[in-house]
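for the writeup, i need someone to sanity check this before i put it in the appendix. the sequnce is what the collaborator sent (i think, or maybe the updated version? ugh). structure was predicted straight from it, no edits. if anything looks off just tell me and ill rerun, i have time this weekend
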Amino acid sequence: MDFELDDEQKLLRDTTRGLLDRSYDTEALVEVKATPRGWSEDVWRRLAETGLLGLGFADEDGGSGAGPVEVGLMMTELGRRLAPEPVLDAVLVPGAVIADVGSEAQRRKILPAVTGGGLLLAFAHAEPGLRWPAVDVSTRAVRQGDSWTITGAKNPVPHGDCADTLVVSASLPDGGVGLFLVDADAPGAIRTKYATHDGLRAAQIDFVDVAAEPLGDGADASDATVAIRASHVRAQAALCAEAVGAMAEALRLTTEYLRTRKQFGVPLASFQTLT
């Protein structure tokens, strides 16, 4: 098996790295994470213009049709720079769920706006007391004629503080767990925003009879357990790629320090216990 990157993949890696290197040094990163959103809308715009937000989505959904290797390369570079932009939480995870489960009309309406950087999504699945990656939820979906409402609490919702549209999981009347589209500012949806321990952002969102649109064709909501489990796998893979980037940069900085920092008149790297 060949693990070498081809020329296009190398170009993708270098383009992503260059964009982030120009955007962030340590001081700029600290300043951006201290803002209310915790990430840069200017960097987000450039990620969209470069086509990076569309990686992994089909051409007809506003993407470039790239695969998991390309998505992993992007996430590795985001991790290398510790970039706080919500590519995973606002694009990759909820966007892929819509691509998997959504109707053609839903995909055409939502995904091009997401990959273009104009629409922010969030996946509202986790609940208080629910251990990731569990699927069953206590949030309930109720059908009233041809319409649906949901009631329950979701927390944490990663980057749910700034989301425009939520993909919400809820238990169905006949069993199973369905997925619904909800306007984040819909009546009955109450957001409590907060900073996470790693300096990012999240929200608790409480729903009280909030109008919801089932993902998929028609007015029926079907069990989406398979799609939810697939979203967990994607999230884990992307987080691993991000961690690889962070570790690689930590190793580079440490190695550079050992080669340049001197003690007793010689570089630290000359001491066997450090090398």
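The chain has a mean pLDDT of 93. The CA atoms of residues 158 and 197 lie 12 Å apart.
thx in advance!!
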